[in-house]
Amino acid sequence: MSETLPMNSVRRADCPEQDLDLVVDHVDTIADGVVAVTLRRADGEALPSWSPGAHLDVRIDPDVVRQYSLCGDPDDRDRWRIAVLRTVAGRGGSERVHALRPGDALAGRGPRNHFELEPSPRYLFIAGGIGITPILGMITEAEHAGACWHLLYGGRTRSSMAFHEELSLDHPDRVTIHPEDESGLLDLREALGVPMQDTLVYCCGPEPLLAAVEAACEAWPEKALRVERFTAKATDPDVPAADTAIEVEFRASGVTLQVAACSSILSAAEEAGLPVVSSCQEGICGTCETVVLEGEPDHRDSVLSPAEQASGEVMMICCSRARSARLVLNL
């Protein structure tokens, strides 16, 4: 059995999140419906360091904020790269990104990482479509760490799969490209049917892929699988929400509020003028993560791992509530 690599064998970026004025350096079409946008700081200074799996909040206009994975070179402090799939039936954020041109100004906040690459002798990376973006930096880091790894990369068509050519050229023996129109759906049974020793599985992509990987990994050790979602995890329609009013003490602010059943903790805090920061409003970005001092959270986010949720140490106040009648938060 291989020994686990030391913690310093993978990159850790401890820079605090920053509000940044950014400028579009260039925009490239890299696949059907996908553009890569390269950003730099408006003041010309170095960008904050980041680690594989990190993402950036991008304020496209005053009312539109979206989260995009950083997929460039973590060693390049002059430029950041994001890749964005145009979603025709979406909320308009991707359409705005596809309309960007060099010189356009953007406001950003980050980087933030809830999908960190943990040290391991072996990795299995699974990506679906635009879910390849956070995986790219992980592959580079796994190479630098001397770890064994393999990538399963699926998509609708080969032409829609961003970065597939460079991945195949750079790592022909470690990358499996699996376009659905050529090979059908990814068969996860061979890859995940038998747990592999000392192997971490990282997966990002559409919800059906994530659900299939989670089901296939049920026999794996509890902490072997790490996933990142671009949309909130679906709730069970047969389990109706039975929200009730709760009392929330914001200890650092010296304020206690009654949060109505129809209101989120975040909304109540904003209405009271408390210093809260948020972005996605649906529990996928981690911006509103808040330390829990007392009480039992009712976690409804798609960011925290099961172990992190069970600890009850933090919660996402945009979507989560409380199992106890009262919460005390460090806000």
List the helices and strands and how they pair.
Blueprint: E1 18-31, E2 34-41, E3 55-61, E4 64-69, E5 80-85, H1 93-98, E6 105-112, E7 122-128, H2 133-145, E8 148-155, H3 164-170, E9 175-179, H4 180-183, H5 188-192, E10 199-204, H6 207-216, E11 225-228, E12 246-250, E13 255-259, H7 265-271, E14 289-294, E15 297-298, H8 306-311, E16 314-316, E17 321-322, E18 326-329
Parallel strand pairs: 7-8, 7-10, 8-9, 10-11, 12-18
Antiparallel strand pairs: 1-2, 1-6, 2-5, 3-4, 3-6, 12-13, 14-16, 14-18, 15-17
What this model shows, in words?
It is a single chain. This protein is an alpha/beta fold. The protein has three domains: 18-112, Translation factors (Elongation Factor Tu (Ef-tu), domain 3, Beta Barrel); 122-228, Rossmann fold (3-Layer(aba) Sandwich), CATH 3.40.50.80; 246-329, Roll (Ubiquitin-like (UB roll)). The protein has helices spanning 93-98, 133-145, 164-170, 180-183, 188-192, 207-216, 265-271, 306-311; strands at 18-31, 34-41, 55-61, 64-69, 80-85, 105-112, 122-128, 148-155, 175-179, 199-204, 225-228, 246-250, 255-259, 289-294, 297-298, 314-316, 321-322, 326-329. It has a six-stranded antiparallel sheet with strand order 4-3-6-1-2-5. It has a five-stranded parallel sheet with strand order 9-8-7-10-11, with helices on both faces. The protein has a five-stranded mixed sheet with strand order 13-12-18-14-16. The chain is globular, with a radius of gyration of 20 Å.
